[in-house]
Amino acid sequence: MSIPMVFFDIDTQVDFMLPEGNLYVPGAEKIIPNLVRLMSVARERDIPVVSSADAHSPDDPEFAIWPPHCVVGTPGQKRIPETQFEDATIVPCRPGAFTPPQRWIGQTILEKPTYDTADNPNFDAILKSLGNRRAVVFGVATEFCVRADALALRQREQAVDLVVDCIKAITEEGGQKALSELASSGVRMVTTEEVISAARG
After folding, report:
1. By three-state DSSP, how is residue 115 classified?
2. How many CA atoms within 13 Å lie on the side-chain side of 138?
3. Cβ distance 111 to 94 under 8 Å?
4. Dist. CA 112–CA 21, nearest whole Å
5. CA-wise closest residue to 167 among 36, 13, 20, 32
6. Is 107 within 8 Å of 89 (Cβ atoms)?
7. Domain spans, the chain
């Protein structure tokens, strides 16, 4: 019997995904059709979706490096409609904000002020509650938050698949370097079609 999946949907928010966003990842909107396919199969097969969400204060120190983006309460901080479930559970970046569900289905959104979703103090409790699942990672940006989350999962001895046709990098060079590093860490490279075929088994 194959290991069940959990989808890790990384930072598919307006400020990153759309050309009008404050920190637009070039070409990110081109992965939206594959995001739609993955979210559809997640609903169809009851695959839990753990979504990361950048959540910054207006004076976040990160804005010394990057343009202001994903400020809490702004339109740019919202997920694009294609990756937002109506009944999503939001887990703020504070200790004790996560209550294990009776059954893992639907979307859980982890807020974070950094590249790494593991900086949300509820991250490890969520992984423990999910149990033995293969993590299927996709989203933006490849060389920053996608890389950080995939490595965080591997450091916790999690099996990780990276959906290579459902990610986008800020620069091609940075993206390729991240892919090489992730492959060396044991991340398996897969396509959207392969994930869907495996999910429908």
Report:
1. coil
2. 25
3. no
4. 18
5. 32
6. yes
7. 5-200
Please report how many Cα atoms fall inside a 13 Å half-sphere around the Cα of residue 111, on the Cβ side. 19
CA angle 140, 136, 38 (to 5 degrees): 75
Sign of CA dihedral 119, 124, 130, 132: positive
Sheet holding 89-91, edge to edge: 89-91, 107-112, 49-54, 5-10, 134-140, 160-168, 188-190
Rg (CA), the chain: 15
pTM: 0.97
Give the distance, in angstroms, between the CA of residue 50 and the centroid of all CA atoms in the same chain.
Answer: 7
**Residues 116-158: tens digit of each pLDDT:** 999 999 999 999 999 999 999 999 999 999 999 999 999 999 9
Which residues neighbour 82 within 8 Å (Cβ) at sequence distance 6 or greater? 12, 32, 35, 36, 39
How many of the other CB atoms lie within 10 Å of CB of 143?
23
| Third-level CATH fold of 5-200 | Rossmann fold (3.40.50)
**pLDDT tens readout for residues 52-105:** 999 999 998 889 999 999 999 999 999 999 999 999 999 999 999 999 999 999
Q: Can you state the angle between helices 172-184 and 147-155, rounded to 10 degrees? A: 10
